[in-house]
Amino acid sequence: MDKKIFMKKSVLALSALTVLLALSLAPSTPLTMHPPRIHIRDSNSTNWSGYAVVTSLSSPQKGAVSDVQGSWIVPSVDVSVTPNAYSSFWIGIDGYSSNTVEQIGTDSDTSSGTPQYYAWYEMYPKYPVTLNMKVSPGDTMSAEVEYLGSNRFLLTITDVTTGATFSTTQKSGSARRSSAEWIAEAPSSRSGVLPLADFGTVYFSGVQATLNGHAGSLSDTAWQYDAITMTTSSGTIKAQPSSPPSGGTGFSVTWYHQ
Description:
By secondary structure, this protein is mostly beta strands. It is 0% helix and 48% strand. Strand 16 (201-211) and strand 17 (214-216) form a beta hairpin. The radius of gyration is 16 Å and the shape is globular. Mean pLDDT is 87; it is low at 2-29.
């Protein structure tokens, strides 16, 4: 799902829904998507929280990113606090400083007081595609987005807890490959950013990216990283990442407001 961080430089347009056999949008969810919407200069977003890495925060290099990997534990949602709300957790390439996102992840949503958990991938600005994979709170998910060349991307997600896995090769001729991300998001619908479900705290681990042929962790000195805080339009914090630990291989994101 594309997570549109309200970047000062761009507003992304919605595209038509893509439907694939054996894959469909979750039946009880709206037409959600994950577009980028980041204010790069102040590291705030109305729908993203987590970390991004780029060659340079002031001038991200196009074509630098070839791989991003990470794991997270699917968080449970508190239906008593947010009975109708949404939260997405993913790793991906692009979106921080560009108009596409190549991403794969999971959702922890609530609908009329009932929790819903599922996996998906998205090649924004196309709509996300929900996977036929059972996902439960507490499951450890491992994912990777790899650039194969010739505008092709390999997106893979594995439920380490159950052993279920999915991969797909997708094409994008407009991907800049200028950033890698590990994100908790409030997905969007046609009317804008949806309420953020109370997911408590989500934990990301095994954080790794490859830029210009060099593989490293979040805090590798070969690039720069940005901590992204999700806020309302008036500045109220909705979700915030922790500082990366020594080595930069993991961090957490904590929910504060829907």
